[in-house]
Each structure stands twice: as C-alpha cells, then as structure tokens.
C-alpha cells in the first residue's frame, strides 16, 4: 500500500505513535509518506520506503495566524494526487481530520476517492476537542472519516459520551518497539545518577498541567524521606520552571534531576526502579508502556485508559488522581521489598508484550484494507 500519514511532528505521544507506526509499516514493505510541518522527531534515519513531504506556509502581512489548515489540505491534495496514495491516516482529530475531509472533497471533484482513517489520541477528545471552540468541527470530521480508531476502550467510551458520533470506532491500542525498548546494561549511568546505590524513580511527560507533575515531586518528597532515592524528570513543557522552583521549596533539588527532552529514554529506563504517572487524564499512557517494556513497574493514577495498561497489584499500582499518600505508600511498598519489586518488574514486562508493535501494526494494516474496500464498494 501507499500510505499517507499526518501527525504532529513533536515528541508528544500521538506524533510518536504515528511515526513508529509508519516505520513499522515501511519495514513490512509499504511505502509511507509523512506529511507534516516539520520532520517528525523520531523519523531520524534513512529508510528506502519512507518519504517526507513538508507543509510550507506562504506568509502574508494580512495573516495574524498562518492558515495551517489550508496549507496542509493543499499539500494533502498534491501528495495524494502525485504519489497516488491508497489511504490517508491522520493522527489527532484537530485539525487533521477536518483538513483531510477538505482534501478528500477537493480530490473527489477530480475523480479521486481517497479513504481517510482518523486516530483519536486523547486530548483531542478529552480536553481541547470538547471545548465549544472546536467540538462542532471535531464531531463533523470524525463522522465524515471513512474509518475511526481510538487508542483505548476508555477513549472510545469518552468519544461516544461527549460527541454525537454516528461512526463505529475501532480500538487499536498503542504499542512499543521491543527492539528499542528493552532492558540494557547501563550500569555506568546508574553509578553516575545514584552513586550510593539509591533507588531511581522516573517521570516522562510534556509537563502540561494535565500530567500533574507536581504530584510526582510531592510523591517523591515522601519517598526519599524513607528510602534513599533519586528522581529523573524527563521532558519539557509549560510547568517546568514552576516544578524546578517547587523542588527548591521542598528541599529536594539535590535528588531531582531535570534532564529535558531525551532521545534515548530507554537507556534511562534501563536503570530505573519505578515509573511515576499521576496524570489527571490519560487516554492510554504510552510513557508507562515504554517503562513496562523495560521492566519498570508503574505507580500511576487510575485516570482514563491507564488501567488498561497498568494492572493494579501486578504491573504496578493505581491510585485516585491526586492521592499522593497512596501513591507514595505503594511506591515504598515496592522499593522496600526487593522480591516483590522483582516480581512486578517481570509482570510489567510480560504484560507489555501484548502491545508489541509486531502484534499491533498488522491490525492497522488489516484495518486500512477494510476501509479501502468499503470506500471502493461505495464509489
Ligand atoms: O499527553 C499529551 O498531551 C500528548 C498527547 C498527544 O496527542 O500527543 O498524548 C495522548 O496520546 C498518546 C498517544 O496515543 C497517549 O498515550 C496519551 O495518553 C494521550 N494523552 C492524554 O490523553 C493526556
């Protein structure tokens, strides 16, 4: 197949999933065309089957905001037409699903019928998409997509609850590449981070309010008073400065390291004992899955789709959003019982295996074929 992929090219979960899916599809012989405003963050190596089409903005003094949707729709029309794509897969509803619909209509005028698959990722439904600013367009463009997928059962349920959806939504969960996310020996990192054999805890996010990274610091504050430990804060975002200030107030600066965006997260997961994810809302929790693939149990909130990934009492523990005491108690339980921690490490890895990209990519492949056939039958 010739597959067009539209996504946000940043480090955010939806962009990561889109890029890794594209790479896996390319590995299995498909031609994959990424259409984005910047080279996607994880698209960093040459691959004979991967092509990149940059969306350029023609600026004009009249524009207060660059009309991204128009530029993207025009690029989609041009790419579908010239590359003769079989399907367009757009990740994150806003504005990608609506833009794909516009491109589809333009192409239809030319006698080209392009099937559009939209994948819902989370905040496009649970947060920003629900706002009246966007919700009519989100509803319309989901209903006009030829195929719609959601990354968890919970996100599917939320979509039906909050929008008037007339479409079937197929759940295809996120995935992880075990060739990359695996437990590797990085003892020299461990020595540098925790020279006295301290336990290592880790959090990865975009430091937006929805991630409740403040809770990570509060939970860690309780843990390190009982067990010598270090905290790695990975990622960057609007809350970072405030969080660094908070460490000073809590007096934990010497034990917390803000490492910014990291390419090789798996190397840091390799030396971590626990992963913390106290999010307010989380449709899936890809960062938790990546931790589990590296044998790291997860202490998380029970928000959204997280319970589908992190199994309470097996791969980690779940607490109510904001319940710092409970999260700290669960973390301490594992950190002070080495055998239990080891069992949870093995459980986390075993549970993550069902989300191996090798299992999930063929589900997308089959779904594309189903949608292409359905659209062809209607034409
Ligand atoms: O977490 C974010 O704000 C980033 C966002 C995105 O769209 O990039 O992540 C969402 O999609 C990820 C990939 O499907 C999911 O693993 C995250 O749970 C989801 N984030 C939220 O629902 C808050």
Folded structure, characterized:
With about 375 residues, this protein is an alpha/beta fold. The protein has 15 helices and 13 strands. The chain has helices spanning about 15-25, 70-85, 95-110, 125, 135-145, 155-160, 185-195, 215-225, 240-250, 265-270, 285-295, 305-310, 325-335, 340-350, 355-379; strands spanning about 1-5, 30-35, 50-55, 85-90, 115-120, 145-150, 170, 200-205, 230-235, 255-260, 275, 300, 315-320. The longest helix is centred in the last third of the chain and has 22 residues, at about 355-379. It binds ligand GMT. Ligand GMT binds near residues 15, 123, 210 and 285.
Helicity level? 40-55%
Give the integer mean of the pLDDT values.
96
Q: Return the CATH class of the largest domain.
A: Alpha Beta
User: N- to C-terminal separation?
Assistant: 19 Å
| Computed CA radius of gyration, to the nearest angstrom | 22 Å
User: Within the largest sheet, what's the order of strands?
Assistant: 3-2-1-4-5-6-7
Summarize the structure.
The chain is an alpha/beta fold and 379 residues long. Helix content is 44%, strand content 16%.
Secondary-structure topology with pairs:
Elements: E1 2-6, H1 13-27, E2 31-36, E3 50-54, H2 68-83, E4 87-91, H3 96-109, E5 116-120, H4 123-126, H5 135-144, E6 147-150, H6 153-162, E7 169-171, H7 187-193, E8 199-204, H8 213-226, E9 229-234, H9 240-250, E10 256-260, H10 265-269, E11 274-277, H11 286-293, E12 298-301, H12 306-309, E13 316-319, H13 324-335, H14 338-352, H15 357-378
Parallel strand pairs: 1-2, 1-4, 2-3, 4-5, 5-6, 6-7, 8-9, 8-11, 9-10, 11-12, 12-13
Helix pairs in contact: 1-15, 2-3, 8-9, 8-13, 11-14
The protein binds ligand GMT.
């Amino acid at each position: 197949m010739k597959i067009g992929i539209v996504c946000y090219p940043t480090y955010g979960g939806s962009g990561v999933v889109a890029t890794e899916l594209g790479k896996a599809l390319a590995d299995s012989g498909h031609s994959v065309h990424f259409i984005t405003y910047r080279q996607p963050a994880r698209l960093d190596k040459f691959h004979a089957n991967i092509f990149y089409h940059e969306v350029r903005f023609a600026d004009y003094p009249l524009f207060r905001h660059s009309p991204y949707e128009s530029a993207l729709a025009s690029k989609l029309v041009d790419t579908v037409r010239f590359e003769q794509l079989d399907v367009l897969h757009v990740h994150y509803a806003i504005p990608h699903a609506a833009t794909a619909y516009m491109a589809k209509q333009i192409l239809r005028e030319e006698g080209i019928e392009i099937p559009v698959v939209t994948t819902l990722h989370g905040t496009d439904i649970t947060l920003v998409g629900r706002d009246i600013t966007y919700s009519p367009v989100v509803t319309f463009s989901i209903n006009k997509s030829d195929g719609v997928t959601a990354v968890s059962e919970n996100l599917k349920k939320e979509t039906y609850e909050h929008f008037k959806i007339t479409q079937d939504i197929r759940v295809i969960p996120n995935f992880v590449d075990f060739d990359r996310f695996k437990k590797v020996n990085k003892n020299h990192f461990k020595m540098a981070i925790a020279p006295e054999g301290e336990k290592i805890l880790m959090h990865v996010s975009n430091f937006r309010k929805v991630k409740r990274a403040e809770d990570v610091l509060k939970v860690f504050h309780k843990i390190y008073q009982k067990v010598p430990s270090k905290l790695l804060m990975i990622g960057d975002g609007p809350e970072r400065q405030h969080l660094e200030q908070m460490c000073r107030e809590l007096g934990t600066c010497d034990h917390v390291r803000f490492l910014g965006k990291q390419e090789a997260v798996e190397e840091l997961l390799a030396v971590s004992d626990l992963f913390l994810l106290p999010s307010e809302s989380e449709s899936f929790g890809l960062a938790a899955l990546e931790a589990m693939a590296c044998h790291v149990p997860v202490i998380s909130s029970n928000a959204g789709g997280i319970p589908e990934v992190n199994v309470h009492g097996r791969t980690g523990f779940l607490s109510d959003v904001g319940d710092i005491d409970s999260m700290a108690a669960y973390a301490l339980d594992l950190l002070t019982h080495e055998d239990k921690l080891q069992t949870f490490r093995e459980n986390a890895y075993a549970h993550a295996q069902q989300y191996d990209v090798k299992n999930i990519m063929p589900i997308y492949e089959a779904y594309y074929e189903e949608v292409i056939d359905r659209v062809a039958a209607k034409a």
